Amino acid sequence: MRMLLIHSDYLEYEVRDKAIKNPEPINEEQRKGRLDEVLAVFASVEKVDEVNPDEVVEKALAEIKDVAGQVKAERVFVYPFAHLSSDLAKPDVALDVLRKLEERLKEEGFEVRRAPFGYYKAFRLSCKGHPLAELSRTVVPEGEVNK
Ligand SMILES: C[C@@H](O)[C@H](N)C(=O)N[C@H]1[C@@H](O)[C@H](n2cnc3c(N)ncnc32)O[C@@H]1CO
User: What angle do CA 63, 68, 73 make, to 5 degrees?
Assistant: First the structure.
């Protein structure tokens, strides 16, 4: 999984059109979302992650906790983002991974939102611009590291 982590004053999105045949079903309330004082995590789940999705969730969680601790962020916005990799996981695997990541972040005490999966979305982001405000992390299942 490839992640772009942006420490932001806010991130807000609004769902537009479907971007895949079967996007995640959403209710009216999920069509828009905003969090203030947030660590935005733009995430591309990759084909290699299909080997062990649960392990990749734990590794991504560790990286997000590390960065959130450094920038003192208590809120995390998980944002499905298909543009950080040229070798994407299948949508059903990707959605499962991002749902689990959201769940684990909540278990670790973060306030978490996850943007809807499978849609084009308009979004606004206000990056804080400090030295740790823009970071990227890549995590892969253990067995894949040395290939
Ligand atoms: C389109 C752009 O504006 C929007 N921001 C977008 O990227 N939408 C993506 C994700 O929500 C989701 N999606 C599909 N596969 C994946 C994957 N492997 N990892 C993450 N998301 C995925 O499906 C959409 C189309 O790829």
Answer: 160
